[in-house]
Each structure stands twice: as structure tokens, then as C-alpha cells.
From TrEMBL:
Residues 23-119 form the Alcohol dehydrogenase-like N-terminal domain. CDD domains: iditol_2_DH_like. Belongs to the zinc-containing alcohol dehydrogenase family. Keywords: Metal-binding, Oxidoreductase, Zinc. The lineage of its organism: Bacteria, Bacillati, Actinomycetota, Actinomycetes, Streptosporangiales. This is Alcohol dehydrogenase. Transmembrane segments: none annotated. It comes from the Bacteria. Residues 167-296 form the Alcohol dehydrogenase-like C-terminal domain. Its cofactor is Zn(2+).
């Protein structure tokens, strides 16, 4: 079979590999869709401290169980299920967390093995009828978005700002609407990418410069109830805090480059305005199941966000599209 393997930064190879064999307690999957995201682009450029090469990449996985033909979606982040955090129901911050495509071979392959650890935490979800494999593969990033918005308590009547118009930003706009947000504003410094995203997710306003001033203007000086940064930008995080309304919630959804993670924060804004700043680290198995349900019910549409469908041999083209911001969602169909 064909796989896309990471060997080193800048060195992802399409290779022939023997079909994997499922051991006891494991599941063999015929991968139908594995979507790409900014993380794949980051791994391609810099590698990742959790990846010991060579490793088959790909963590947004949907396919068929080889033995039964069952249509399934697979989680990406694998909690241990046994530590203190897991036992308290906080699986997204499990310190023993492992990931598909990092610690285990992922979905950029015709066949893949689901480790027993994934099955042990209910990490394989049946794809509901009417939901395609490509849509199901987007349940994983949507699950992360769901975790972020639940921690930031996005709810009815909120004015929500999403900073970053990539695939994650688009999912944030869609989910905020599904949760009853009053208005959603989309911000990106790349006017072209912003226009492409806005065409699809139709925010109430788009902002490509001076976001703090623009958001204050749009909200009559009040600021936004929730600001979500879906971009690896410290400047965006600093702006997010300044455009939040009193008792606003700020989600630092996207992480910062590990060599540049320090921002300037006016602590008095947090103090006097009673702001809440939250992070977000992936998603739990339950978030994945909930994301699939949201897609199946039509609460969050994802099919139109899939702008490119490529073959496995074109993984590098897909990653290139993602790095240039020239696509919303690129899915690989091995
Ligand atoms: Zn991803
Ligand atoms: Zn754990």
C-alpha cells in the first residue's frame, strides 16, 4: 500500500509499505478520508517533538473497518483514561496524552491500525447516516473548536470575534452561530483568505486591519463578549484582550511558536473588566462524538469548507495549499 511518511523537516515521502496487521484489541481501517490542517504544515516545516521518524502522518481520520465495513471516525488525541485529570473528566489535559500520526502511524495511508488505547477510551465513533467520510474527517478539528467554545462559554446573544480565517476560524464562526451567538465578526490580516472564508461562512462583518478599533466601533464601544484567536499570533492575543467586553471571555485557541510564546498583557484590563482568559488543548473522545452529531443534525455544516480533495500522492501539494492559506480544508482520499 501507499503511505505518506515524515522522515525529517522538509522530507515527507510517498512510499510503498506492507499492509499493517491488527494485533489483539486493535482495529484495521481502510482510510477513506484524512484531512490536513495547519499542524501538518507545521510538522512538515519544523518536525514535532512527539514525532520520532519515520512516521505516517495524518490525524483527521475517517474510514471503514476492514472486518465489518462499519463507517467510523477516529479521534486524534488519545487520553490515558487513568490519570487524575482523566478520572476527573478532563481528558483534554491528560499529561500522558498521545496522538494519532505522532506516536502512532496516522491516516495518510490506504490502511491504518487503530491502537487498543484508542478503543479503550471510546475513540472510534460510528459515522451517522447521511454524513460522508470527508465530512466525518472534519469532526476532529470541529471537536477541538467545540472544546474551545465550551471553555469560553460561547452562548446565546454573544458578540463573538474570531481572529484567523483559516479552516479552524471558519469552524469557529459556524459553531458560534449554532450556539446562538448574536453576531460573529471575522478578522484576518490576509485580505484574500478573509474574503474566501467570508464567502463561505458569512460573518456579520470582516475586519482586515485595526481590529481593536473596528470591534469597538461595531459594538458601540462595549467590546465583544467572546474573542477567539485562531491564529499562531501573539499580536492577535494582545489585541483580543483589548477588544473584550466587560466580563468577556478570551480564548487563546491557537498556540504560539514555542520559541516566541511571551506576550504583553495589561493585567488591569483582566482585573477591572473581570475578563476570563482560557486556553484549549485538542479535544476529548466525547467532543468528537458531539462534533459528529452536530454535523449529522445540520447544526454545523462542514461539507462546503472542504475546498480540495486530493489523492495520497498529492499530500505535499495539500500541505502547500494549507501553508499558503490558499485553501480552506484540504482532504486526502487514499
Ligand atoms: Zn488537525
Ligand atoms: Zn490521563
Amino acid at each position: 500500500m501507499k503511505v505518506a511518511r515524515f522522515h525529517a523537516p522538509g522530507d515527507i515521502r510517498i512510499e510503498d509499505a506492507p499492509e499493517p496487521v491488527a494485533g489483539p484489541g486493535e482495529l484495521k481501517i481502510r482510510v477513506r478520508n484524512c484531512s490536513t490542517c495547519g499542524t501538518d504544515a507545521k510538522i512538515h516545516k519544523h518536525g514535532h517533538h512527539h514525532i520520532v521518524p519515520p512516521r505516517v502522518m495524518g490525524h483527521e481520520i475517517a474510514g471503514e473497518v476492514v472486518d465489518t465495513g462499519a463507517r467510523v471516525q477516529v479521534i486524534a488525541a488519545i487520553p490515558c483514561g487513568r490519570c487524575e485529570e482523566c478520572r476527573r473528566g478532563r481528558q483534554t489535559i491528560c499529561p500522558n496524552q498521545e496522538s494519532m500520526g505522532y506516536h502512532y502511524d496516522g491516516g495518510f495511508a490506504e490502511y491504518m491500525i487503530v491502537p487498543a488505547k484508542v478503543l479503550a477510551v471510546n475513540g472510534v465513533n460510528a459515522i451517522p447516516d447521511g454524513v460522508g467520510f470527508a465530512e466525518a474527517s472534519v469532526a476532529e478539528p470541529l471537536a477541538c473548536v467545540l472544546n474551545g467554545q465550551s471553555l469560553a462559554r460561547v452562548g446565546a446573544g454573544d458578540d463573538v470575534v474570531v481572529m484567523g480565517a483559516g479552516p479552524i476560524g471558519c469552524l469557529h464562526v459556524r459553531l458560534a452561530r449554532a450556539r446562538g451567538a448574536a453576531r460573529v465578526f471575522l478578522v484576518d490580516v490576509n485580505a484574500e483568505r478573509l474574503a474566501m472564508a467570508a464567502e463561505l461562512v458569512r460573518p456579520d462583518a470582516v475586519i482586515d486591519s485595526n481590529p481593536v478599533e473596528q470591534v469597538l466601533k461595531l459594538t458601540g464601544g462595549r467590546g465583544a463578549d467572546v474573542v477567539i484567536t485562531a491564529a499562531a499570533s501573539g499580536a492577535a492575543q494582545e489585541q483580543a484582550v483589548r477588544m473584550a467586553a466587560r466580563q468577556g471571555r478570551v480564548s487563546f485557541f491557537g498556540g504560539l511558536p514555542k520559541d516566541d510564546p511571551v506576550i504583553a498583557l495589561d493585567s488591569n484590563l483582566v482585573h477591572y473588566r473581570e475578563l476570563t482568559i482560557v486556553g484549549a488543548n485538542g479535544s476529548s473522545p466525547a467532543h468528537n462524538a458531539e462534533a459528529l452529531r452536530l454535523v449529522a443534525e445540520g447544526a454545523v455544516t462542514v461539507s462546503d469548507l472542504i475546498t480540495h480533495r486530493l489523492e495520497l500522492e498529492q499530500v505535499l501539494d495539500g500541505i502547500d495549499l494549507v501553508s499558503r492559506g490558499a485553501a480552506i480544508k484540504v482532504t486526502i482520499e487514499p
